[in-house]
C-alpha cells in the first residue's frame, strides 16, 4: 500500500523551509503524485514556470529518498547541483568526467539524494548505473526517475541511441519505481511514442498540464 502523502499545506511549508520558495498549486500536485509511489507522471509546463523546482520538492518531504534526473545537457546537471547544495540536499552530477567507481560507491551508500545524469551514462550497457539500479536495496530508496526535456527522447533518438534504449529500465529495476516525463514542448505524437517506449502505465497515471492561465490535472487509476 502506498504511503499516505502529506497534504498541500505540509508540502508548501516544507518547501518554504527547504528552498525559501512558495510552491504553486501544480508543483504541489506533482509532489503529491510522486509521494503516492504507485503512479507515473506526465508534466507539461512552459519554460520559466518552475518545472525544475517541481522535480526537487519530494526531497524536501522524503529526505531519506533518492531522485534520479536524466537531462540531455551536462550544464543543466551542474546548475541543479549548485541549487540543491545551497538547500542542503547532497547532490551529484554524473558525466563522463565524474563517472568514477568511487562516486558510484558513494551513491550506493546513499551519500547523495539527487543524482543528475545523461542518457549515455544511465543506459550504458553493463555500466555502473545498471549495476546500481539492479541493487534492490538501492532501488527501494528511489522516489522516482525523472526524464527532463523528455521530448528529446524522440527528437534526438536517432543520433543519441541511448534514448531509444530507455525502455530497458523497467526490466533492469527490481521493483516498481515511478517515472516522470517532463517537457514544455510535447506533441501528441511524441507523447504517445515516449509513453510506449517507457512502458508508461495508463491505469496508474497522473497528467499535469500547466498553461499560462490554468492547470489541468488528470488522474487514471
Automatic annotation (TrEMBL):
The record's SMART domains line, in alphabetical order, gives: DEXDc
Mention one GO molecular function.
ATP binding
Q: Which domain of life is it from?
A: Eukaryota
Q: What's one Pfam family the UniProt record gives for this protein?
A: DEAD
User: Is the keyword Transport in the record?
Assistant: no
The GO annotation for biological process reads: double-strand break repair via homologous recombination
UniProt entry tagged with the keyword Hydrolase: yes
Reactions catalysed, semicolon-separated, are:
Couples ATP hydrolysis with the unwinding of duplex DNA by translocating in the 3'-5' direction
Catalytic activity, EC: 5.6.2.4
Q: Which GO terms describe its cellular component?
A: chromosome; cytoplasm
Q: Which residues cross the membrane?
A: none
Return the InterPro entries for the record.
Answer: DEAD/DEAH_box_helicase_dom, Helicase_ATP-bd, P-loop_NTPase
What keywords appear on the UniProt entry? DNA-binding, Hydrolase, Isomerase
Domain annotation Helicase ATP-binding: ranges? 32-204
UniProt similarity note: Belongs to the helicase family. RecQ subfamily.
* Name the record gives this protein: DNA 3'-5' helicase
Amino acid at each position: 500500500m502506498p504511503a499516505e502523502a502529506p497534504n498541500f499545506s505540509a508540502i508548501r511549508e516544507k518547501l518554504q523551509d527547504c528552498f525559501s520558495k512558495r510552491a504553486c498549486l501544480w508543483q504541489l500536485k506533482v509532489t503529491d503524485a510522486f509521494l503516492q509511489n504507485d503512479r507515473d507522471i506526465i508534466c507539461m509546463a512552459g519554460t520559466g514556470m518552475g518545472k525544475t523546482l517541481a522535480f526537487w520538492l519530494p526531497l524536501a518531504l522524503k529526505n531519506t529518498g533518492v531522485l534520479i534526473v536524466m537531462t540531455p545537457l551536462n550544464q543543466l546537471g551542474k546548475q541543479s547541483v549548485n541549487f540543491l547544495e545551497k538547500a542542503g540536499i547532497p547532490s551529484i552530477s554524473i558525466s563522463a568526467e565524474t563517472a568514477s567507481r568511487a562516486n558510484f560507491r558513494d551513491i550506493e551508500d546513499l551519500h547523495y539524494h539527487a543524482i543528475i545524469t545523461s542518457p549515455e551514462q544511465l543506459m550504458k550497457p553493463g555500466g555502473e548505473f545498471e549495476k546500481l539500479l539492479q541493487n534492490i536495496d538501492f532501488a527501494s530508496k528511489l522516489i522516482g526517475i525523472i526524464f527532463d526535456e523528455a521530448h528529446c527522447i524522440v527528437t534526438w533518438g536517432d543520433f543519441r541511441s541511448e534514448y531509444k534504449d530507455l525502455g530497458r529500465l523497467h526490466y533492469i529495476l527490481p521493483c516498481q519505481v515511478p517515472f516522470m516525463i517532463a517537457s514544455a514542448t510535447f506533441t501528441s505524437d511524441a507523447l504517445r511514442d515516449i509513453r510506449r517506449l517507457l512502458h508508461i502505465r495508463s491505469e496508474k497515471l497522473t497528467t499535469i498540464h500547466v498553461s499560462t492561465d490554468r492547470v489541468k490535472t488528470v488522474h487514471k487509476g
